[in-house]
Design brief:
Elements lengths: L1 H48 L1 H41 L3 H8 L5 H21 L4 H47 L4 H11 L4 H13 L4 H11 L3 H16 L3 H50 L5 H5 L1 H25 L4
């Protein structure tokens, strides 16, 4: 009974509190919202007064945005054109371009004469030593088609490595020349005069091309044909974008020089990390030949069935094919490109 009386009193007090609170809200709400209403009215009036200014600002911002969009479109078009040209160059890599990229000043006819001579040099020794004729034919094919192109690729890679070693320094020379007030052509003349081959001759070709009406962008595109490296492509992209959209060329080239040096450091780091794997691959690839040489010295007649029987020749051919496949797979695994 005591519990029921207390519950009734609590309910009565709660109802009174709710009623009083409702009356207070009804009486005080207009006073509380009057200030905010006045503030909204003032804000609307100020917006009407400042409407033309806001419209002018929005018009200016639209113009700025339009200029930015136009610049972005120009940059995108330039990048698309450069990508299409790069794809076309990769598709049309001819023998003449390979000779040009290797730095040799010979014609394609002289190259084929050299290939024929190397083919004879590879084909004749097996005949003198009494090895079967098909080994001589295989040696002739390797000497005629394989070795000359391998030699061209070797010269190309060596020339490209020398170019990359000095290319970042050449870009720094150009940056310092531009900051000193020299035009781009004069800065390239300094590089052509002061840098050694192949960087100096490549920039000299660009400078000489300007004398006959070739623009700097087109000259760098031709440099990329002679030196198909990503770093040269970066320079072409920077020069093409700057010529179409403007901007601080010295700052852009300075950033490019930093990127080139970072790429060079990354390549050196990758080369150091993969050197252990390359050494292991070289040991594994040379081990069968070392064992065959040792057996030939210790017991010359032990390996004769491999050379003088058809079954042994088939085994040698199979072993050579599997060894070549393994070497190519290991080479693919340990060579990294960035």
């Amino acid at each position: 009974m005591f519990f029921g009386e207390n519950l009734t009193q609590i309910a009565f007090i709660g109802m009174v509190v709710v009623a009083v609170g409702g009356m207070a809200v009804a009486l005080l709400f207009p006073l509380m919202t009057n200030g905010s209403a006045e503030q909204r009215v003032k804000a609307i009036a100020e917006n009407r007064k400042n409407g033309p200014q806001v419209q002018k600002q929005s018009t200016f911002s639209r113009l700025v945005d339009g200029q930015k969009d136009g610049r972005r479109k120009q940059i995108q078009e330039s990048l698309k054109q450069i990508e299409e040209r790069e794809k076309q160059r990769k598709k049309r890599l001819t023998l003449r371009m390979m000779i040009m990229q290797s730095g040799l000043e010979i014609s394609t006819n002289a190259f084929w004469v050299f290939s024929a001579i190397t083919g004879l040099l590879f084909a004749l020794p097996p005949l003198f030593f009494g090895i079967p004729w098909y080994v001589s034919v295989a040696g002739g094919v390797v000497g005629f088609l394989g070795f000359p192109r391998w030699f061209l690729n070797f010269l190309r890679r060596r020339r490209q490595n020398v170019f990359l070693h000095d290319f970042a320094d050449a870009i720094d020379v150009m940056v310092r020349g531009l900051k000193a007030g020299l035009p781009v052509s004069d800065a390239m003349k300094v590089i052509a005069a002061e840098s050694g081959p192949p960087v100096g001759p490549e920039f000299s070709e660009v400078v000489e091309g300007q004398r006959v009406g070739i623009t700097i962008d087109q000259g760098i595109e031709r440099m990329y044909e002679r030196m198909p490296l990503s770093e040269v492509n970066f320079l072409g992209i920077v020069m093409a974008i700057q010529s179409k959209t403007g901007g601080n060329l010295s700052e852009a080239l300075s950033n490019l020089s930093k990127v080139l040096r970072d790429r060079k450091k990354m390549k050196a780091k990758i080369r150091a990390v993969s050197q252990e794997a390359k050494s292991s691959a070289a040991i594994i690839g040379a081990l069968p030949f070392v064992i065959m040489g040792g057996l030939t010295v210790l017991n010359p007649e032990y390996l004769n069935p491999l050379f003088y029987t058809s079954t042994g020749n088939i085994m040698l051919a199979g072993c050579g094919a599997w060894m070549g496949t393994g070497v190519l797979v290991m080479r693919k695994m340990i060579n990294f490109e960035i």
